[in-house]
Write a structure and sequence with these properties.
Blueprint lengths: L1 E4 L2 H10 L5 E9 L7 E8 L4 E5 L7 H8 L4 E4 L3 H11 L6 E3 H7 L8 H9 L19 H12 L1 H14 L3 H18 L17 H21 L3 H4 L2 H10 L15 H18 L16 H21 L3 H4 L2 H12 L7 H4 L4 H7 L1
Parallel strand pairs: 1-4, 2-5, 5-6
Antiparallel strand pairs: 2-3, 3-4
Helix pairs in contact: 1-2, 4-7, 9-11, 9-12, 13-15
């Protein structure tokens, strides 16, 4: 059964009612298509029997909800919670700490790596879900019955999934692994907030000369700050390809910007002077350390990469662990680049965590 919560008093009463619930399922619905920051529209809570749909747009007092979700006595079940944690933090200043993420648990229990909610429900409960309302307008009011049904379904199975996955983790003696992954998750969520090295992820950035790299970093930080201040998507300011081309050409005059593909004249009129100032000022910025911008692996290291991946696949099969959970592609590339730079550097979760016993010997 679902209940609509649309007033401060109703929310306070609900939180009082659920205060002693040690296990709650939570999901959020939000829109981010036309803004930099996600705009939260709905919070779904379930105790495993009932479901409450909290109309965030009709409520302005969330202190009781914050106390409930942040309580050390409560554990909150999510599925793939990174974006939910981000939107709760930004929109409502709520930071859950007692978390059970069913996507992570399913990976460690070898049910499947990075499975979506519908796939996991199908795999464990043999229930087929309708996900057609995923991209609907959650800020519209009233919500359609189909939206309401979808929102309820997104949390109503989480308790059952939790119980089944806990049983699997206990049977496999992997609950400690899961706890370790959850601790790592909080670090990853924090890293998502930092954009200092976003420029290094640009495809082909390593081909730029030293000064162009400094300029690209400055342009990325300027775009990030501008998008935040205007609360618009970064692409509305300038696409990645535009920033790359500006950094490559290092233009001095506004008319030069019109030769850059994919940058609309209106955007050039609006932001062109700021971009030229970033280019000019970047000449006074310190150089970028070489190891901040990864280059493609050498031919020899590419062969080593393939060999290690094959061995890890064998280990993963023997231990019934998804290979991606042992060591993903980006981690392995980073390890091999550290070797090319003269020193083997392993990520903490491989140097110290449960993976160490299998991954470190292979590497």
């Amino acid at each position: 059964m679902s209940h609509w919560i649309a007033s401060n008093n109703d929310l306070k009463n609900l939180c009082d009612q659920l205060a002693d619930s040690e296990l709650l399922a939570l999901d959020t619905e939000f829109i981010r298509t036309d803004t930099y920051y996600p705009k939260i529209a709905l919070i779904q809570l379930s105790d495993g029997n009932d479901c409450w749909l909290i109309d965030v747009l009709a409520i302005d007092q969330f202190s009781a909800l914050k106390l409930l979700i942040e309580s050390p006595n409560n554990r909150i079940i999510f599925h793939a919670c990174a974006e939910d944690l981000e939107v709760l933090d930004h929109s409502l200043n709520i930071q859950p700490t007692g978390i059970f993420d069913t996507q992570i648990a399913a990976g460690i229990a070898n049910v499947g790596y990075s499975m979506g909610y519908a796939r996991l429900v199908g795999a464990l409960l043999d229930i087929e879900l309708d996900k057609q309302e995923t991209r609907s307008n959650w800020l519209a009011r009233p919500l359609t019955q189909r939206q309401i049904d979808y929102a309820v379904v997104d949390v109503i199975h989480l308790h059952t999934l939790h119980d089944m996955l806990v049983e699997k983790l206990d049977q496999q003696n992997r609950m400690a692994w899961f706890d370790e992954e959850i601790k790592t998750l909080f670090g990853l969520v924090t890293q998502r907030k930092s954009n200092q090295n976003f420029f290094a992820k640009f495809k082909g950035a390593w081909r730029l000369d030293a000064q162009s790299l400094v300029t690209l970093k400055s342009l990325c930080l300027w775009r990030e700050s501008t998008a935040k201040s205007k609360d618009v998507p970064k692409s509305r300011i300038a696409k990645d390809s535009v920033l790359m081309e500006v950094a490559r050409q290092m233009p001095e005059y506004k008319h030069q910007l019109h030769s850059i593909r994919d940058w609309h004249p209106i955007a050039i009129k609006r932001y062109g002077d700021a971009v030229l100032n970033q280019v000019k000022d970047s000449y006074n910025e310190p150089p970028i350390p070489a190891n901040e911008v990864p280059q493609p692996l050498s031919k020899a290291m590419t062969h080593v990469f393939t060999t290690i991946r094959q061995k890890l696949i064998t280990v993963a099969s023997e231990q019934n662990i998804p290979q991606e959970f042992l060591c993903n592609k980006r981690e392995l590339e980073g390890i091999l680049r550290s070797v090319e730079n003269g020193e083997l550097v392993l990520p903490n979760r491989i140097e110290q965590g449960w993976r160490k016993q299998w991954v470190k010997p292979v590497i």
